[in-house]
Write a structure and sequence with these properties.
Blueprint: E1 17-23, E2 38-45, E3 66-67, E4 72-79, E5 85-91, H1 98-112, E6 119-123, H2 137-142, H3 151-170, E7 173-183, E8 188-190, H4 193-196, E9 215-224, E10 230-239, H5 257-273, E11 280-285, E12 291-293, H6 310-330, E13 341-349, E14 355-356, E15 359-360, H7 369-373, E16 374-375, E17 378-379, H8 418-421, E18 430-438, E19 441-445, E20 449-450, H9 452-468, E21 476-480, E22 489-490, H10 493-498, H11 501-504, H12 512-530, E23 533-535, E24 540-546, E25 561-562, E26 567-569, E27 579-587, E28 599-605, E29 608-611, E30 613-614, E31 617-618, E32 626-633, E33 638-646, E34 656-660, E35 669-670
Parallel strand pairs: 5-6, 10-11, 13-23, 19-21, 20-22
Antiparallel strand pairs: 1-24, 2-4, 2-7, 3-32, 4-5, 7-9, 8-12, 9-10, 13-18, 14-15, 16-17, 18-19, 25-27, 26-27, 27-33, 28-29, 28-34, 30-31, 32-33, 34-35
Length: 674
């Protein structure tokens, strides 16, 4: 999260109502044997109605007016045929959520045979999606531009993802998998180089494009077709990069650069292999805490105010997508029906259990001054001009009395005052430490934004435990940030002492990464000794300040009406894209169901109208060039909507029209031909 304006917390009173949630913990599920290794995938749309605050840019963020790229949740279900299964869930959201993980696990256990330890919910950390669904008041208050838990959004996403997990399970087929790692450069760069260079062995690294986590990890999954042949189901992968190519002024939901990298691979698979089923690319973020996208550098303090630049987002996203596609193809020769699956989870309240194997973290969390100043290139307006909030500045960190667990962190608002405005109980406290093994790859989902060096150390700790146990199968350990919850950052102790933004947002002190490493190392040791581990807290109960950002459900009583002819708008700035706009009246925000297909472009052919495809890519709102946004409210619960086709095809030849899918009792409508 780039801009957490905690100095404003003294002015915020929070929310007036409280939501009490108790989630039923599922009973331990008896393993279900299959005749062979099985796999299934699904993709469900989780695009919410307009009106929700977007997470990542805190108070500077807008509320979503619609979407440019749909938000999806993609599931890869794996079963080893011997009674062990798992579900890897990638979401186009700011972060995972412990509430979300618990609700999904409770919902799917009986039908699918999945235990909570078998389910990982991993966010891409896009800064253009809702965020008010955390299990703590602190981030429900500060992560987005609105404060409080939006329970209707939590329930909507939980229901959709649970449906996706059950769909992937129900559609499982005999399968083969391949895992691998590929290092790529030029897609991400280090935004906190001065901190990174404090790590042992990195002192002389001056290249921001080499001081990175270059690892693209991937699990390719193929399945048996009805005719006995084998074709791809898709892939789950991770790469360490911040989803911040789209800047704070954006006012439509989107998956940031991940949308391009996901869809490019999915389209390529569908075109080349033509499977009988929809394919997925569940791409999520890795150890990305100090990994910025490789955008052109325009200086530090002004970058946050630049206009939204979709062209640059596409450039970075498609480059990553092309690398992922090449890796997917390379893994084709390594597919095997031999599968090792292991899962382990240990749920810990880290305030109550702040010591492990000689490593202590702070019992009381605190935000630092550097947090208020914002991250490199995403500085907080006005505050970042003050030296006391500038990361790495001696005024922003302690130079004396540094023996406490918070070390050199200068606590924002002073250590005596911050707890008054932000009670310690409002901070996140419960971590689901989790390890999921797929053949030679360990997936380590964490609710932190993990810096590149922290990710290396955590992964090395887990691999070392495997080696000590005499297990030589494991080769790779992929740390996945912003998973199963959100806790801010974790840095190495060396990085922490500099107190750049990342250190200021490491809430539990300088030993957070060593603490995580020991906890996951211990989890790996116990897993190898006993099989599968699931140690959960006694109950899943939460009392959280609540908010209502969405209107009450209502389907408009008016009629669909075409309001304008399609109009071409030229790009007037270098960062802009040309588009064709069309407006119509339709159901209001709760009746329009943005998670269902709505808009496409059709072309007239000799055989009538059909969906337009360009380079085998359908021009619909399931791609990345058709935007849908609410323009205004209308009478009788209706609203005025606009769709924009960005980067349209050459209009000199052919006849085209926008097609709007039915809603409620209203049938299809079409724009005038253009």
């Amino acid at each position: 999260m780039k801009r957490l304006l905690i100095t404003a917390l003294f002015l915020l009173t929070g929310c007036s109502s409280v939501s009490h949630l108790t989630i039923q913990q599922p009973e331990a599920v008896t393993p279900r044997l299959e005749s062979t290794m099985m796999a299934g995938v699904s993709s469900v749309d989780i695009t919410p109605p307009p009106g929700l605050p977007m997470g990542g840019y805190s108070m500077m963020a807008n509320k979503g007016k619609g979407f440019r790229t749909r938000l999806k949740a993609r599931t890869v279900y794996l079963n080893d045929g011997q009674g062990k299964s798992m579900a890897l869930i990638q979401m186009d959201l700011f972060a995972g959520s412990l509430l979300l993980q618990h609700q999904v696990a409770s919902a799917v256990a009986e039908k699918t045979g999945l235990n909570p330890a078998d389910i990982a919910v991993m966010g891409t950390h896009t800064h253009s999606a809702p965020a008010n669904f955390h299990h703590n008041d602190f981030y429900n208050k500060h992560a987005s531009s609105g404060a409080g838990l939006e329970k209707r959004f939590l329930d909507f996403v939980s229901t959709r993802i649970a449906e996706g997990v059950e769909e992937a399970w129900a559609k499982r087929r005999p399968a083969k998998v391949a895992t691998g790692r590929k290092d790529i450069y030029g897609v991400n760069r280090n935004r906190s180089l001065a901190s990174y260079k404090l790590n042992a062995g990195q002192e002389n690294q001056d290249d921001v494009f080499k001081a990175v986590n270059p690892a693209l990890y991937m699990i390719r999954v193929d399945a048996q077709d009805d005719d006995g042949s084998w074709k791809p189901l898709g892939a789950f992968s991770s790469f360490s990069i911040h989803a911040t190519t789209i800047s704070a002024p954006v006012d439509v939901y989107n998956a940031d650069l991940f949308a391009y990298a996901q869809r490019e691979v999915e389209w390529n698979i569908a075109e080349k292999y033509q499977p009988q089923w929809p394919v997925i690319h569940g791409l999520t973020t890795g150890a990305h805490g100090d990994m910025a996208p490789a955008l052109p550098f325009r200086g530090d303090s002004l970058f946050a105010h630049l206009p939204v630049n979709w062209k640059e987002s596409r450039d970075v996203g498609t480059k990553l997508g092309n690398e992922a596609w090449m890796m997917f193809e390379e893994l084709g020769s390594e597919l095997s029906d031999s599968l090792i699956l292991r899962t382990a989870a240990r749920e810990i309240n880290i305030r109550e259990n702040n010591k492990v194997a000689g490593v202590d973290i702070c019992k009381d969390p605190a935000a630092g001054n550097a947090l208020a100043g914002g991250a490199f290139e995403r500085r907080t307006p006005w505050l970042a001009a003050l030296p006391i909030f500038q990361g790495g500045n001696d005024m922003a960190r302690r130079n004396w009395f540094t023996d406490s667990c918070h070390g050199r962190k200068r606590i924002l608002g002073f250590s005596a005052l911050q707890p008054i405005a932000e009670p310690k109980e409002s901070f996140p406290t419960t971590v689901l430490f989790q390890l999921l093994q797929v053949n030679d790859l360990a997936i380590l989902p964490l609710p932190f934004e993990v810096t590149a060096e922290s990710g290396r150390r955590i992964g090395e700790q887990v691999i070392a435990e495997y080696r000590r146990a005499g297990d030589s199968v494991l080769k790779h350990a992929a740390v996945i940030s912003t998973s199963n919850g959100y806790f801010g950052y974790t840095t190495t102790p060396e990085e922490y002492d500099r107190q750049n933004y990342e250190g200021g947002h490491t809430l539990y002190g300088r030993n957070m990464t060593p603490y995580i490493s020991v906890q996951l190392g211990s989890l790996a040791e116990d897993l190898l000794a006993t099989g599968n581990i699931q140690e959960l807290l006694p109950e899943w109960s939460y009392s959280l300040k609540a908010a209502d950002f969405l209107p009450e459900p209502e389907f408009g009583k008016g009629e669909r009406v075409v309001l304008s002819e399609p109009v071409y708008r030229e790009a007037r700035k270098i960062y802009q894209e040309p588009y064709i706009a069309f407006r119509w009246q339709d159901a209001g925000v709760t009746g329009i169901n943005l998670h269902e297909s709505l808009v496409s472009v059709e072309v007239k052919t000799e055989n009538g109208w059909k969906l337009l495809e360009i380079d085998s890519k359908p021009i619909s709102d399931d791609g990345y060039d058709l935007e849908v946004r609410k323009v205004a409210n209308a009478k009788n619960g209706m609203a005025i909507w606009e769709t924009r086709w960005y980067n349209p095809a050459d209009m000199k030849t052919g006849e085209y029209r926008f097609a709007i899918e039915p809603r409620g009792n209203s049938g299809r409508v079409y724009s005038k031909i253009f």
